[in-house]
């Protein structure tokens, strides 16, 4: 059977079973067969083959794109004649292929002696921005050899005509509102975790957005208002919390955006999204990738009394009142020039934050990638020509305040800045290009990152990236047919691209399903590093880490850079004494609760960096805090450690990187050894005093300062989804923090210890509790299932070496077996302990789930509706979050313990303790030494 026949069968099945169009072609072999049928003018499938070739072939560096570009070159040169594809049309098709093989073909034609094709090829090249070193080197060599066409192209690039000749954005954009949900909208609603396997198949994945009914309502709104864009809204909430989710933005764009190219199917851009409380920072970055618009509506405001004081409800929460309506079907107008939102002639709200000069450039260029690559290309061309590049793009915002010190994040951004004009240190609000040190790609967004890399024609990791890792943790629980189809292909691509991969395509080392955040935390050496990762919980306890969409991850891998404003910071310090029966997780939850109380319900963490002065808590344990900051709606988090603690953390990281080397995970570029070398250098800098541990200046300015009083924490603290709150908008936030006594005798249906929120110490706590229970009762009975998933294999190995794994295995009714991994998700649970393989497990919600309607107590971070546990018609599923000892005891009892039961159960157990430092972790500000250390701009 021919590949084409197989493709036709797939098309038929796809249509009958799923109601979908043909899947876009990325295979060289299939497209070669299709081209053969096009050349055969009498072929029965010639018409369909032409359609597939023109409209259904993926661009960039896919193997199909290489074949397509080569055939178009033959047509342009007259070596092949296709009546339906003229030379002019062939050039147009090449112009939509973005880069890679198409650029190679265009350069071949432009730099040739054939004047009939060189000029039109040059005209197309002038519109392209996705050029890499191999491409620009060809232009530079040709220019220096006196090639006039090369000079013409470079002069166009130096003027950035690929950007300046684009049409400006519309001055007025009509939108029709659609309330996608009330309260915070998780990206799970837009792209559910349990559908992660289909994200690379954009049309198929689009079917999972919200509900089929919602999709139809959007279609009906479009029919009724053909001249308006549908704007998805989080009413009385924030849009896109929980994750960056490029797939979520892709889905919104698929239903309510516009097609990026008529020759590339199901890739849509420029959606419009909004929220009463704006857009989650990481999700807003993703919106920018597509050139979309994200609005902060501010349509619900705090109600005040006649004295201007906030009116509160019975729970002490501020009462909100509607400033203006955005009910579904309301037609509004965004004035992009005035930067205001109107209902007819009535001004509703200022939306200038959505139309900064940089964001407008993204909209004009069709997305942020084109701007990043365009700037690099303009710089290259100007330097090659020996001219000064004109100021085409909006000037970078460089803010410097005299006699003001730097926060920790400001120091990191200044240290890693690229192409900064300022001679003085930059402060929050500045827009900066920065070098990225560490990049992480996870396995459910990885297939999309691969697509993005292919689309931007990247073929190898940027040499300025210190290290990058491709995880296998989100598909660790169940090695089903979907994982078996997607993951090996992903690992092979990323391994070839230059990443350290969890699975070895060659089968040399044991497959690793370690949680990506824990691995990134280990391979991040420098406390001044910038980390980009394909997950909202990319929050390292060394350096500053930003969760990002799959596209931004791809951009960081390809260029070694990222561009963003320097965020404001909120300083968190501690006072008092942590009680012996409390776990550090309780401190983490109390931080959220005390912050909200200190600022009358205002979340001052939202959109900012939390600078937590952790002092003596090592990176493994401190990660519990930084990880949680994603749920605090913070943009990122930074740990301030003393010198001694930082050295210990780096030494631990070194040992774990060495284990990766010993297991055979090193690549040809010796990336892992390079990280160990960097670690040795950093330790020497600290020991010698030449560059102590990162600390803010004593004259740094913060948006707010939060002091957490440890004396107030008397009971285990639980984050509650509050599923029965009468105000729908207040359900499933992470703001409801309650003591365990609130849940007196509440039944527990399942417990989960795992995900990125736990470390080796948590596993040892379970072992200690089992030993105590065994000594006290002689036997251990679980009255509710307990699922335990260690975060990494390193931790499992260490527990085995230290004797703790034996007690876990002894009382486990199920222990993972890598030789026989599960091929189907568990749907029912017995009252036993399940020792699952390292990975995300229940926290991810894409494979394993609790039984619908269960009340789950978990160490994870996810309490979104339907994520860990689905609802039933009789009962809402609850995912309550707490510490490891609380989870373990609750499953033994089958209910939440009393404080007396809990205190007795943890007596003598070594919990994750924390003692605040008495001294300030700051450096003395000196205006004379405030000049930033800048990375040399290689472009």
Automatic annotation (TrEMBL):
Coiled-coil annotated residue ranges, if any: none
Entry annotated with the keyword Chloroplast: no
A Pfam family reported for this protein in Swiss-Prot or TrEMBL: Aconitase
Keywords on record: Iron, Iron-sulfur, Metal-binding
NCBIfam families named among the record's database cross-references: PRK09238.1
Aconitase B HEAT-like domain sequence ranges: 7-163
SUPFAM superfamilies attached to this UniProt entry: Aconitase B, N-terminal domain, Aconitase iron-sulfur domain, LeuD/IlvD-like
Source organism phylogeny: Bacteria, Pseudomonadati, Pseudomonadota, Gammaproteobacteria, Alteromonadales
Top-rank taxon, per record: Bacteria
Name of the protein this chain belongs to: Aconitate hydratase 2 / 2-methylisocitrate dehydratase
Aconitase/3-isopropylmalate dehydratase large subunit alpha/beta/alpha domain residues: 411-894
Domain Aconitase B swivel: start-end pairs: 179-406
